Automatic annotation (TrEMBL):
An MF annotation (GO) of this entry: ATP binding
Record-annotated ABC transporter domain positions: 2-241
Protein name: ATP-binding cassette domain-containing protein
CDD domains: ABC_MJ0796_LolCDE_FtsE
Transport among keywords: yes
Length: 255
């Protein structure tokens, strides 16, 4: 699903060049749940941004779902990203003036996926799957941090992307709510979605299938984890909404 070959990313600085990614080769298969860990400044976010085509390569090649990302630009890149990549961020990045349902509809609006009548239905289905069906009409600011991240994940899934890229998605959540997010990602992989997640937390091996460690822009470790088989989404289980993420724990989250 993802092929990374000889990837380098450097930034010009007044004092010289900063090499954030210093030569990475990596293959990630369909349905893998890969965590990318490493010290601050090791190049994790840069690598994720390169995968999403948010940043441009200095050297090398990246192919995602059969498309050479390095060969795309402008509207073709934006269209490809909208249909292929679901992005999840630490601070949710929901548009504050749109309702939660409208936020989830946004990727479909931008990419023209589904007839416009079907977009709201799809958004409400996704919110239901995330356990926040009753929050669709509210503005994001009315939701807890955990609920906002569920909404952001619903938005990321709107166009049924084969790849989800998440940058510290649990960094702003308490541990129970964060675990529920990780459980959700694990459930997605059962349906064949590939998940790559940057995290500072090393103790996520029970959710992910593989852990890649970066140092100074290079891979210094790449190993399978002992995560049990994925479950959840495809079996119809609501990952959130009280079954695996009890509300009392979420009330303690940072919002
Ligand atoms: N736009 C930029 N211009 C110049 N240098 C940059 C830029 N973006 C990142 N860097 C540098 O590249 C290196 C890698 O940064 P990156 O954000 O990828 O690391 P990270 O592992 O994600 O760090 P953290 O865990 O703190 O988020 C750092 O030295 C950073 O200062």
């Amino acid at each position: 699903m993802i092929s990374i070959r000889g990837v380098v990313k450097s930034y010009p600085l007044p004092s010289g060049r900063c090499t954030a990614v210093a030569g990475i080769d990596l293959d990630i298969g369909t349905g893998e749940f890969v965590t990318v860990v490493g010290r601050s400044g090791s190049g994790k976010t840069t690598l994720l941004n390169l995968l999403a085509g948010i940043d441009t390569l200095s050297a090398g090649e990246i192919t995602v779902a059969g498309t050479p990302v390095h060969g795309l630009g402008g509207s073709a890149l934006a269209s490809w990203r909208g249909r292929t990549i679901g992005l999840v961020f630490q601070f949710f990045q929901l548009l504050p003036t749109l309702t939660v349902a409208e936020n989830v509809m946004l990727p479909m609006d931008l990419c023209g996926t589904r007839p416009s009548r079907g977009r709201r239905t799809r958004a409400l289905e996704l919110l239901d799957r995330m356990g926040i069906a009753d929050q669709g009409g509210k503005l994001p600011s009315a939701l807890s941090g955990g609920q906002q991240q569920r909404a952001a994940i619903a938005r990321a899934l709107a166009n049924e992307p084969p790849v989800v890229l998440a940058d510290e998605p649990t960094g702003n959540l308490d541990s129970a709510t964060g675990d529920a997010v990780l459980e959700l990602f694990r459930g997605l992989t059962r349906d064949g979605t590939t998940v790559v997640m940057v995290t500072h937390e090393r103790d996520v091996s029970r959710f992910a299938t593989r852990q890649v460690t970066l140092a100074d822009g290079r891979i210094v470790d790449d190993r399978p984890t002992c995560a049990p088989a994925a479950s959840g989404i495809s079996s119809g289980v609501t990952v959130f909404g009280g079954t695996t993420a009890p509300e009392p724990a979420e009330q303690g989250r940072v919002s």
